[in-house]
Write a structure and sequence with these properties.
Elements lengths: L35 H19 L4 H13 L3 H12 L7 H31 L4 H36 L3 H21 L2 H25 L5 H17 L3 H17 L6 H33 L4
Length: 300
């Protein structure tokens, strides 16, 4: 099944045009030889260093460090800086909120991409027990990294970001983010743990969805981004294509009906997400028709 398109990052001036599922840049020669454990230790060290600096640096300095790290594509550093900003306990500005989202989206996105690659390789080595075991062990290491990152974000959301959000827009943004990161956890979870992460993801998305319908215009990019990711959750996690298509189509149609109310500032962001909604609807509809055609061949 082709992967759905989704918005996983904040609509940030430097990232809006990027594909939501873009592949991280290739590692330089030798850089990929480090094991996942070594990378994890380095990431933890970076976080600890920024945490200690955060006690002495003011917010503007940390934000500037995050911007520099983004330009250098050092997203672990960027995430660590914005984590330190968040832990100061103040409500984030729109710019700070977007920097935090972009940083962690890139950090977790690299691990999600790695996990998919290794999982695919693992499945192809079923006849070679030794290779399959190596693949399994490596996948589990990547999973541990991914889980640590997601849990870091979820802790920031529950401890600081959601409680400090005073505006409906911020509340929806953070609840959507909570739904996203529980969804990422559910992608690699199994058994009871998977059921818990799926339930938590759906609950966060649903709460954000209810607030967005009451407080935000159908054309608002955050409301549209939520509808896009919530519909992907229904399609890919709950395997509910009808609900996914219904949610995406409703969001698209409601936005189209009020397109003339869009201001110039959000026009580009909103129309981009509307295009992604339409792309997913086209993809899902064609896949479902193909499935129905296959099933129908055996009927009278």
């Amino acid at each position: 099944m082709k992967r759905s398109i989704f918005v996983g990052v904040a609509l940030h001036p430097r990232t809006t045009a990027r594909a939501a599922t873009e592949t991280p840049s290739a590692c330089e020669e030798g850089a990929c030889r480090r094991t996942v454990d070594e990378k994890q230790v380095q990431r933890i060290q970076v976080m600890e260093d920024f945490a200690s600096q955060g006690m002495t640096m003011d917010k503007s300095e940390l934000v500037q460090k995050a911007k520099l790290a983004e330009q250098a594509e050092r997203y672990d550093d960027m995430a660590a800086a914005m984590k330190a900003v968040t832990e100061q306990g103040h409500e984030l500005s729109n710019e700070e909120r977007n920097l935090l989202s972009v940083a962690y989206k890139n950090v977790v996105g690299a691990r999600r991409s790695s996990w998919r690659v290794i999982s695919s390789i693992e499945q192809k080595t079923e006849r070679n027990e030794k290779k399959q075991q190596m693949g399994k062990e490596y996948r589990e290491k990547i999973e541990a990294e991914l889980q640590d990152i997601c849990n870091d974000v979820l802790e920031l959301l529950d401890k600081y970001l959601i409680p400090n959000a005073t505006q409906p827009e911020s509340k929806v943004f953070y609840l959507k983010m909570k739904g996203d990161y529980f969804r990422y956890l559910s992608e690699v979870a199994s058994g009871d743990n998977k059921q818990t992460t799926v339930s938590n993801s759906q609950q966060a998305y649903q709460e954000a969805f209810e607030i967005s319908k009451k407080e935000m215009q159908p054309t608002h990019p955050i409301r549209l981004g939520l509808a896009l990711n919530f519909s992907v959750f229904y399609y890919e996690i709950l395997n509910s294509p009808e609900k996914a298509c219904s949610l995406a189509k409703t969001a698209f149609d409601e936005a189209i009906a009020e397109l003339d109310t869009l201001n110039e500032e959000s026009y580009k962001d909103s129309t981009l997400i509307m295009q992604l909604l339409r792309d997913n609807l086209t993809l899902w509809t064609s896949e479902n028709q193909g499935d129905e055609g296959d099933a129908g061949e055996g009927e009278n």
